[in-house]
Write a structure and sequence with these properties.
This protein is α+β, with helices and mostly antiparallel strands. It has 6 helices and 15 strands. It has a 5-stranded mixed beta sheet with strand order 8-7-6-12-13, with helices on both faces.
Length: 290
């Protein structure tokens, strides 16, 4: 397991910015540490705030949360065995970072042709037990208005829950956060996760902006190719998920192989057309000779 110290602070009025050694600090209040380098000391407010990847581990689907309508439902409601799930851990009264995370999800999905509700599910879960279904319903309405894609409302879910369910879920996905009693806010990390239709952790994407290509490939891969197109299969042949960066990167050898195979097919098609043309010409000459 790779331990990622990708730390975001949403405490007000304090903002802490960390960056990789030798790299410029990003515009967002964020940090990513190279696990092979010596980590810089964290302020006390950020101690214990991180994301520990738990790829292929099963999330407990018997945990009960309340949906935006106030219904108490097990997490298994959103895992039907056919569609992958995009999971965002946020809290709805967050003054800064969680809005950026959800904005990033909505913006990325706008550029993805797959539809929530038909091809996959979007599940936002608040890790603040003070959040209510009424607050969740307002969040959902806001993002549906932003997303503006018809017939997808049934694919967006905004959940709240009690402390025990929240703790069990965040522990299962390796998501560690910290509450500051002085401000009533949380220091927390920024990431979304892709889970398989059976509820196993498949991919982690970090930050507040998520490349549509990465999100799409993550969903296609988590679905075991039950969604997507043949083009996605070609891209998955050429691109490989790197847990260290939380992104899909090109595999040079596979790209060379694909290029070689494409060249052979094109040359073969050209030779076949040329041979067929010569064969037809020879037949005409034979008929004329007779």
């Amino acid at each position: 397991m790779t331990l990622h110290r990708i730390v975001f602070i949403s405490l007000v009025p304090m903002v802490a910015v960390w960056a990789q050694p030798g790299q410029p600090a990003p515009a967002q209040p964020s940090a990513m540490r190279d696990s092979n380098s010596k980590p810089a000391p964290l302020p006390a407010a950020l101690e214990g705030v991180n994301i520990e990847q738990r790829l292929n581990q099963q999330v407990p689907l018997n945990l009960v949360f309340r949906d935006e309508y106030g219904r108490s439902l097990p997490l298994s409601t959103y895992f039907n065995g056919n569609k992958p799930v995009l999971l965002a851990l946020v809290y709805y009264n967050c003054p800064m970072l969680c809005t950026l995370i959800l904005n990033g999800v909505e913006s990325s999905l706008k550029a993805v042709s797959l539809d929530p509700g038909r091809d996959f599910e979007v599940v936002a879960v608040s890790f603040d037990p003070r959040d209510t279904p009424e607050i969740a319903a307002r969040k959902k309405a806001n993002y549906l208005q932003r997303y503006r894609r018809p017939n997808t409302a049934n694919g967006w879910h905004f959940l709240t829950g009690d402390e025990s369910s929240i703790k069990a879920l965040t522990d299962a996905v390796g998501y560690q956060y910290k509450f500051d009693p002085a401000t009533g806010q949380f220091a927390h990390a920024s990431a979304i996760m892709i889970l398989t239709p059976q509820g196993k952790l498949s991919r982690y994407f970090y930050g507040v902006e998520y490349a549509p290509r990465d999100v799409r490939l993550g969903l296609v891969e988590a679905s075991q190719n039950k969604i997507g197109t043949p083009v996605d299969q070609i891209l998955l042949f050429c691109y490989h998920y790197d847990p260290g960066s939380g992104k899909y990167g090109a595999i040079a050898m596979n790209m060379v192989r694909l290029g070689g195979a494409t060249f052979v097919l094109i040359c073969g098609a050209f030779l076949f057309v040329a041979w067929r043309h010569d064969w037809q010409r020879d037949r005409r000459f034979v008929r004329q000779a007779k």
